[in-house]
Amino acid sequence: MLPDKDGPSQGGGGTADPGGSEDPAVSLFREYLRLRTVHPEPDYGAALRFLDRMALELKLPAKKVEVCPGRVVLIMTWLGSKPSLKSIVLNSHVDVVPVYQEHWKYDAFAAVKDDEGNIYGRGAQDMKCVTIQYIEAVRRLRARGTTLPRTVHFLFVPDEEVGGHAGMEMFVKHPEFTKLNIGFALDEGLANPGESYTVFYGERNPWWITVKCPGDPGHGSRFVENTAAEKLRRVINAFLDFRESERKRLNTGECFTLGDVTTVNMTKVNGGVAYNVVPAHMDVSFDMRIPPTVDLQDFEERIKRWCREAGEDVTYQFAQKHMDQEVTSTADSNPWWSAFSTACRTMNMNLKTEIFPAATDSRFFRAVGLPAIGFSPMNNTPILLHDHNEFLNERVFLRGIDVYECLVPALASVAPGPGEA
Length: 421
Ligand SMILES: CSCC[C@H](NC=O)C(=O)O
Ligand SMILES: [Zn+2]
Ligand SMILES: [Zn+2]
Description:
cytoplasm, EC 3.5.1.14, four-stranded antiparallel β-sheet, binds zinc ion, metal-binding, Aminopeptidase, 10 helices, 16 strands, Alpha-Beta Plaits, binds N-formylmethionine, alpha/beta
């Protein structure tokens, strides 16, 4: 059978499957994948229209908060029977990262489903699947007439993929955020290639740094002293030697995961004006991710030393420097975690708890003192976020809806804690 190649203009709601056998939830997921909410110019208007339609279908009120010009957070609310209790947040970002279309098997915005049920599209794992799984789980719960004690807020946020600065970082400071009276948030995680599901209780801190190496200029035919390039070489060696030592630490001795070590990647180099002019400046940039167990002050001292030892006037500046190291407790004494993990156990799901290797909007919840768990219910799935040919199998997707159908009531039924009405 040939893959079902619906074009990007195709609507959802059952039109995706010529055989008529496709689950409507899968068709809706594919419809959402076709919206081009891709950087650098995401079509947020299309996503907001889609989400407004979801709110109408679910008969839930939707509120829009423009946190920055053109950057809207949409909040859909399912009011609990005890609305004074702290609420549950189901968070998802609307934007997706760009693609190298020439490396994809199919159009990355056509949501092609192959004959194995694999659905290809940018955002299939990160994280349009989760958005639709939340919606479909709640659709089922409401269709059954379920009432929940705690209020559930869905947040659909822009700009996570570019750091959340015009998205969740702004929203957590907004009065509308405070009004949500949040007790606990669920946000995205990663696929697990095995049977288990990975759950994230903290994140590494992103530090993006540019090291600037000034030097003496001169003719390209001479042995100029004190060159920018010599300093640059020492800087690169210091950072990359450290990278290598951390790479070796991964998977040796204790069972480290990526979230437990510091990664360093050299991502940009700049400098030079002509072949025969020794440059007056050369810059190098690194993407570093630092586990919450690392002393950040010590780490910055180490960077200072590397720069000092590289030569005269070597300086650095940060483009990102997240400093909060809050993690969410995975002890049974944390009632949110207990409800989450117990519900997963009843579904026979094996959980692996880890530190998230990259950065998500969860860090902004944790930074304001709220517990947050990163979880995308995708097992038996290769990790393909931001990669070519990102896909999710429809059976895994549908199982994820079952998972939230169990998790959401469990979380929204957590007994009132001390200080709650
Ligand atoms: C440092 S803000 C960038 C956030 C981005 N998030 C998802 O990929 C990341 O690179 O982890
Ligand atoms: Zn994401
Ligand atoms: Zn991402």
